[in-house]
Amino acid sequence: MAHDRTQDASAVSLKPNAIGFVDALVIGLNATSPAYSLAAVIGPIVALVGIYAPGVMFASFVPMLLIASAFYYLNKVDQDCGTTFSWVTRAMGPWAGWLGGWAITMTGVLVVGSLADVAVSFTLLAVGLDGWVANDFVRQLLTVLLIIVMTGLCVIGTELSAKVQNALILLQVAFLLVFVAVALYRVYAGTTGFDSIEPSASWLNPFGAGGAALTGGLLLGVFIYWGWESAVNLTEETEDSASAPGKAGLWSTVVLLVTYLSVAIAVVAFAGTAFLAENAGEEEFIFAQLAGDVLGGWDWILLLAVATSAIASTQTTIIPASRTALSMARRQALPQHFGHISPRFRTPDVSTWWVAGIAIAWYLIVNQISTNALFDSLTALSLLIAFYYALTGVACAVYYRRHLTESVRNFVLIGLGPVVGAGLLAWLLVRSVMDMSDPANSYSGTSWFGLGPPLVIGIVISLVGVILMVVWRLRDAVFWQERPSVADPELVHATVAKSSDGKPGDGKPAGGGSADGRSADGDSADGKER
C-alpha cells in the first residue's frame, strides 16, 4: 500500500470509463451555459435583426456543427484529453499545437469568474436577496467560494461531476420549458402587456434583415454555442472513447440549436422587438426583467434557470482548460507538475486547481479596475475561441489529407465541412478584430493604446502565450522534436476502436495520443517513419 501511494505520477492515468455518452452529452450542454448565454445575447441580436433573431441563431449553428464534425473525426483517431492541442500538433506541428492549447486554457481562465458571478447574482435574486447583489464584497466573496466548490467537485471525480451536471441540466431544461410554455400561451391569449407578436416561420430566415445585419448578428450568435467540446475533453474518461465523446459534441450543438430557437421565439413573441432592443444593454439581466412579467410570482423559476446554467458552466468550463494543461504537460509542452493526476481520484488535480486559482485572481483583479473591464475581457474571448476552433477545422483536413478522396462522405464531412467552418470562423475573427479596434464598441468605452480594451486584452494574452512558448522551448526542447504526420490508415478505416483487451476505450489516448511524442501513423518524434 505504501508503494502504491508513493508511485510516480506518470504511472497514474485518468479513470477510464468513468462516464457514458449521456453524461458526456450533458456536460457538453452545460458547458455552453444555455440559459445564461441566450439571456446575454438575445437583446443585442434583436437590436440588430429584429424578429429574425431566431434565424441568426440558426445561421450561427452552421459553423459550430462543421467544427463539431472535425472534433468527432479527429477524436476517432486520437483520443487525447488535450483535443485541439494534440490534434493540431500532430497535423501541423508543435508551434501551432502549443498556441491552440494556450488559447483553450486561457478561455477557461477568462470566463470562469464571470460565470460564477452570474450564478451567484441570479441565485440571490431568486431568493429575494437583491441587496446582496449590489454589495460588491459579498457578491465577489460568494463568487470565489462557488469557484472553489465547483473546482473541488472537478477534482474529487468525473463521476461525481457528471451526477451534479445531470441534476443541473434537468433543472435548467425544466425551468426553461415552463418559461417557454407560459410565454407562448400568454402571447396567443393576448395577456402579455407588451407589443407581442405571434411567431412565424419567416423568423427563421437569417437573411431577413439584410447581409450587414446578419454579419453583426453572427458576431454575437456564433459564440453562444461555445463550450460543447468539453464532452470531447473527457474522451479518456468516457466509455467507447473513440466514438461517444465526438457524438456527444455533435448532439450537443443540435440540442442547443433547438433550445435556443425555442426560447428565442418565445422571448421575441412575448416581449416584442422594441422592448428587447431598448434593453439590449441589460445583457443577461433582461431575463430578470422578463421573469416577473411572464411568470408573475413564479419569476424565481426563470432566475434559477439562469443560475443553474451558470453554476453548471462554472464547473464544466474548468474541464477543457485543466485537461489541455494535463495533455500539454504529458507531452512536455508544459512543466511536468501540470501533468500530475491524483492517485485517489484519478483526475488532473494540479492543473485543475491552477486553472481555478488563476481564474479567481483574474476575476478579482479585473473587478478592481471596473465591472466594464471584466465584460471587456469576456468580449476578448471571441478572438481565442474563433482561433482554436478554426485551427481545429484546418487540422482535421490536414491530418486526414490522404483519405479525403476515398469517398464523398470523407471529402464533405472530414475535409470540406471543417475547412468551411474554419473559414467562417476566421472571417468572424477578422470582423471581430475590426469591431474591437474601435474603443467606442467596448463596454468601458475607453481607449487603450488607441484600441478597444477587448482587442488589447486579446493581443496581450496572445503575446504572453508566444513568450511562454519560446521560453519553454529554450528550457526543454523535447516537445518541439515532434513532427507533423497523418492519420493512421488502420484507425481511419476501423469501424470500432478497441483497446488491446478488447474493451472499447481504455482511457488511454488511442491512435497516437501517448506522451512519448509518437504520431498516429507511426512517425516518431524525429519525423522518420518506422
UniProtKB/TrEMBL annotation:
Residues 495-530 are annotated as: Disordered. Its main location: membrane. Pfam families: AA_permease_2 (PF13520). It is a multi-pass membrane protein. The keyword Transmembrane helix applies. The keyword Cell inner membrane does not apply. Residues 518-530 have a biased composition (Basic and acidic residues). The chain crosses the membrane at residues 21-45, 51-74, 95-125, 137-156, 168-188, 208-228, 249-277, 297-321, 350-366, 378-399, 411-430, 450-472. Keywords: Cell membrane, Membrane, Transmembrane, Transmembrane helix. It comes from the Bacteria. It is found in: Cell membrane. This is APC family permease. It comes from Streptomyces stephensoniae. The lineage of its organism: Bacteria, Bacillati, Actinomycetota, Actinomycetes, Kitasatosporales.
